[in-house]
């Protein structure tokens, strides 16, 4: 793709780890994709901590800094805004960005539940702004290849899918009671944090999920309290005052894929945990069909296990190394065996967002994808309380794989 040169002004809200990552991604796009003719200008960054504002100016390279995010939304030179604040601020800032007419790239979950996410969706659609959601794992070249194999029918009729996202970030019983464990601040727990990623990947590769039944559990019901802003959920506090964990540590669901999915009629399981001991970022998807299957694991993100054909002399899986023939791999590495990483996936995400903002292909994840994931999370939580299957109304305008 080529187009006339355009400079896009960038605003950032919250200068934490993800905010830094967004900033580097914007800066990398012109170098990785020079043919797009897109350049970026880091205009203004906002954070409530003055030290982070200084970091945004002095290290990241933003021209201006502020402690009030409204200054970012009101700045005339800002075309796009990255929203990297904690979960409980996402909906407020997302709606404000839409009303200000700013295209925005927002981390998930967009809201503390479906209602907040739907409110952001409504505001964005009404304003006609371009949106992108932080489902970065879908941009791995091996995942893009998996999606292509499924869409081309290389696996035959899809019969069942298995997705797992296990992490150990909360496996320490004395891990601090951060905002992630507070329902008012985070909404659901592992459902919104990790399970939502897994649902997005299933829908991106196989298609819309139509029904779900689920269960959840809270493994550690109390954790030591932590003053807001004084640390993260990785902090360990010995002999501290204990407080209640208000959301779930573990979730599992059975799902059915709808009639518009590439895998129409397929069934599957989705499982997630934030307290697993062993997996660090154990994010996996397995897709099985009548003529073959595939497996991908983020901890080996540059590999895809593929088996095509039921009666091969060489039965079993072939390991396919990501290569310049897969997804956006060639923009980062010259040949197979040169691994890509997490940060590269955010660059691809930034590129898709900026291309859409500039009037090009709409390949970016969007607010409809966020609403769809939130609807599944909400249905899973409802099912975990009722024990009943929940139907999910299909949301149009997503990037889910479709027949």
Helix coverage percent = 25-40%
Distance between the termini: 26 Å
Summarize the biggest pleated sheet. 9 strands, mixed
What is the CATH superfamily of the largest domain? Dihydrodipicolinate Reductase, domain 2
Strand content: 15-25%
The strands making up the biggest β-sheet line up spatially as 16-15-14-13-7-12-11-8-17
The low-confidence runs, each spanning 5 or more residues with pLDDT under 50, are: none
Oligomeric state, counting identical vs distinct chains:
single chain
Total DSSP helices? 10
- The CATH class label of the largest domain is Alpha Beta
Q: Total number of β-strand segments?
A: 17
| Average of per-residue pLDDT values | 95
Helix-strand pattern, N to C?
Answer: EHEHEHEHEHEHEHHEEEEEEEEEHHE
CATH fold topology of the largest domain = Dihydrodipicolinate Reductase, domain 2
Shape: globular
- Give me the secondary-structure category: alpha/beta
Radius of gyration: 21 Å
Number of domains: 2
Short overview:
By secondary structure, the chain is an alpha/beta fold.
